[in-house]
């Protein structure tokens, strides 16, 4: 039996601060193995005119008992089925880090192709474009043994030491991370022959992370394209100083011009 629309929304979207009168929305997609709370907090920081929706995926948080998604199409189908009526209401932007950058792109692609809808801005962080040579040639991690996978996880940083030191917590965390990486590693798409979007695209990345082909993202849009490099490695955005830079940048973009009061 299908859940009522409100219940489906609560299941898939974490919104710390509901703002029905908000003029625009920021839809945020988690990194691999991640939850929704990091982004949902942004709703308490940004203006009440900006409503923040943080996507919750199966297999974690309140959805811990649900099976993980197996492919990108499942992510796209669920997010769009829940959000489509709301995305038609008012301007929206997308933000995604790492795995979340891929899901942001896949959702934007489907919205444009199937519903002729597009965001007013996409913020992509810590990832090469999915069709770039850098991404295609990247080593696959989801099939590694738990020991080797853990070594790799420690090498990229960003995982709390207390989590890495707790075998019971790791048993819960690693399957979600591997499931998301499996999706990304098996996601295939062609580089657009012509840009299919006209919105602005901004790429963020950590200066000390492995090199990502950020310029390849330029192919998706005919709009403004910007790259911002910040101090730190793969999870640079978890550092409070960088988070402030990101949120300040996001709030200053054209999307939020909609929330300014009219001049008298």
TrEMBL record:
EC number: 3.1.2.14
Superkingdom assignment: Eukaryota
Gene3D superfamilies: alpha/beta hydrolase
Gene Ontology biological process: medium-chain fatty acid biosynthetic process
One Pfam family from the record: Thioesterase
Record keywords, A-Z: Fatty acid biosynthesis, Fatty acid metabolism, Hydrolase, Lipid biosynthesis, Lipid metabolism
Every Thioesterase domain range: 25-246
Keyword GTP-binding attributed: no
Family: Belongs to the thioesterase family.
Identification of the protein by name: S-acyl fatty acid synthase thioesterase, medium chain
Annotated source species: Sander lucioperca (Pike-perch)
């Amino acid at each position: 039996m299908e859940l009522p629309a409100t219940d489906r929304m609560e299941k898939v979207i974490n919104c710390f601060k509901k703002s029905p009168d908000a003029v625009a929305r920021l839809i945020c997609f988690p990194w691999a193995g991640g939850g929704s709370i990091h982004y949902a907090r942004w709703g308490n920081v940004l203006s009440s005119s900006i409503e923040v929706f943080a996507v919750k995926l199966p297999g974690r948080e309140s959805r811990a008992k649900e099976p993980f998604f197996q492919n990108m199409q499942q992510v796209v189908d669920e997010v769009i089925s829940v959000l489509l009526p709301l995305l038609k209401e008012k301007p929206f932007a997308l933000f995604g880090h790492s795995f979340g950058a891929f899901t942001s792109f896949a959702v934007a692609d489907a919205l444009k192709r199937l519903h002729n809808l597009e965001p007013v801005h996409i913020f992509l962080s810590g990832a090469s474009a999915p069709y770039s040579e850098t991404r295609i040639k990247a080593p696959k991690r989801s099939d590694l043994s738990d020991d080797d996978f853990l070594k790799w996880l420690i090498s990229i940083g960003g995982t709390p030491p207390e989590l890495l030191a707790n075998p019971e917590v790791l048993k819960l965390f690693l399957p979600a991370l591997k499931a998301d990486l499996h999706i990304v590693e098996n996601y295939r798409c062609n580089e657009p022959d012509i840009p299919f979007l006209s919105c602005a695209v901004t790429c963020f990345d950590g200066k000390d992370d492995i090199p990502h082909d950020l310029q390849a993202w330029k192919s998706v849009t005919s709009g403004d394209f910007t790259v911002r490099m910040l101090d730190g490695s793969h999870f640079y955005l978890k550092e409070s100083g960088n988070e402030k830079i990101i949120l300040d940048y996001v709030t200053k973009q054209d999307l939020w011009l909609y929330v300014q009061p009219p001049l008298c």
